[in-house]
């Protein structure tokens, strides 16, 4: 859809970003509180890995089949309904926690699973509607600003979560998620989201999932990037899921220090997102993506080599500032490239398959992460993750189709834009 049909697109997109910020922060406060509760109650890497695994499974199993609905159903409803369902389960968890002395683990895991299912619908929806809400030349910059919003959430949420975790009983803290859903839905009702004619077409789930897979497989260079991303997740995610245990177990820290690490990482992400948001028009976005992967490998692997004391924790904080700063250069720039690679009416189906493929390795790694961490130490998983990330970065550099992907993409987009410019001049 031409952005001329939305003359106030900037005001519209910033209202949308505000709704995502205010609803996201409350959801993340509850998410952190649940993870810290599990860490404090069990101290088990296996339990934390299982919690993260349940949070990832819907993305892996449902994403290819969610994409067709994202392309065809009402986008605003796809953002609102999952929030309502997650809020209902938050109320159930709060009531049970009030009636019993402790929260049943099985109910916590179900709650995490439902929240993940909600995000599985919302993530590709947000990714697919952005190109319809802003001009093409502003897409990378707006993606950077969305990254800043998400980073700001991750800065405020851990600090606020640690504070509230200390002063509010867990059964009441969970209800913050309900407040966030009300705020987010209220703001979202005022946002204009363009729809495509495909909304009225029938959904053929398996055929549409195959369509998304075929589109991705036949996009030279992007398929290789997707496979490298899946390998990166396999190596990176197991240790990333154990951040609270690294702080509270290996470094002998507190819940407050676990919150501090999340804040510090997110401050770095906010800085990286700000750079992209202000100076987001790179001629070749694969170069910063490559260097970001290498930097993440160095910081992650280096964290596993630190001594298990408070001095080591100080260096852990410093490394996480750098790791956070380079993360948006990988995720944000790659997403902008993907969004520009396919028409808006196909993007949901492609993103559903792509999100599934890049996430599928995470649960595989998490199945073994807990027992391995309990056996050899959580810090060893950080070293393994760093080495694996380094290999992924070098694979990007070694493959010509990956190195040249963005240059070829931008050349194609420029060629497609020339006839439009000539017609407007006539």
From TrEMBL:
Its main location: membrane. Gene3D superfamilies: MFS general substrate transporter like domains. GO terms for molecular function: transmembrane transporter activity. It is found in: Cell membrane. Keywords: Cell membrane, Membrane, Transmembrane, Transmembrane helix, Transport. Residues 12-403 form the Major facilitator superfamily (MFS) profile domain. It is a multi-pass membrane protein. InterPro entries: MFS, MFS_dom, MFS_trans_sf. The chain crosses the membrane at residues 12-38, 44-65, 77-97, 142-166, 222-243, 263-282, 289-307, 313-338, 350-369, 381-402. One of its GO terms (cellular component) is plasma membrane. The keyword Endoplasmic reticulum does not apply. This is MFS transporter.
């Amino acid at each position: 859809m031409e952005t001329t049909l939305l003359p106030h697109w900037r005001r519209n997109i910033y209202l949308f970003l505000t709704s995502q910020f205010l609803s996201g922060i409350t959801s993340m406060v509850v998410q952190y509180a649940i993870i810290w509760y599990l860490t404090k109650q069990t101290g088990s890497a296996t339990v934390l890995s299982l919690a993260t695994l349940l949070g990832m499974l819907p993305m892996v199993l449902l994403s290819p089949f969610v994409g067709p609905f994202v392309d065809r159903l009402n986008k605003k409803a796809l953002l609102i309904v999952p929030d309502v369902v997650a809020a209902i389960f938050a109320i159930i968890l709060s009531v049970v926690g009030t009636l019993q002395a402790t929260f049943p683990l099985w109910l916590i895991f179900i709650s995490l699973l439902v929240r993940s299912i909600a995000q599985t619908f919302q993530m590709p929806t947000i990714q697919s509607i952005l190109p319809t809400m802003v001009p093409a030349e502003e897409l990378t910059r707006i993606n950077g600003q969305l990254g800043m919003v998400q980073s700001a959430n991750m800065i405020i949420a851990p600090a606020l979560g640690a504070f509230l975790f200390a002063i509010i009983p867990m059964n009441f803290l969970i209800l913050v998620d309900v407040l966030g859903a009300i705020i987010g839905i209220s703001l979202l009702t005022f946002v204009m989201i363009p729809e495509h004619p495909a909304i009225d077409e029938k959904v053929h789930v398996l055929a549409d999932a195959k369509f998304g897979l075929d589109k991705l497989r036949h996009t030279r260079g992007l398929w290789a990037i997707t496979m490298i991303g899946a390998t990166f997740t396999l190596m990176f995610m197991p240790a990333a899921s154990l951040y609270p245990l690294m702080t509270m177990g290996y470094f002998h820290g507190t819940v407050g220090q676990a919150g501090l690490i999340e804040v510090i990482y997110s401050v770095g992400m906010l800085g990286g997102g700000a750079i992209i948001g202000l100076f987001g028009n790179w001629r070749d976005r694969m170069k910063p993506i490559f260097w970001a992967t290498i930097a993440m490998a160095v910081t992650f692997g280096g964290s596993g080599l630190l001594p298990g004391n408070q001095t080591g924790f100080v260096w852990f904080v410093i490394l996480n500032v750098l790791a956070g700063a380079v993360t948006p250069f990988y995720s944000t720039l790659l997403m902008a490239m993907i969004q520009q690679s396919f028409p808006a009416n196909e993007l949901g189906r492609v993103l559903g398959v792509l999100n599934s493929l890049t996430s599928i390795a995470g649960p595989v790694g998490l199945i073994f992460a807990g027992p391995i961490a309990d056996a050899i130490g959580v810090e060893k998983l950080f070293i393994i993750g760093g080495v694996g990330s380094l290999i992924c970065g070098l694979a990007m550099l070694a493959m010509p189709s990956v190195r040249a992907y963005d240059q070829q993409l931008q050349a194609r987009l420029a060629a497609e834009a020339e006839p439009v410019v000539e017609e407007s001049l006539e």
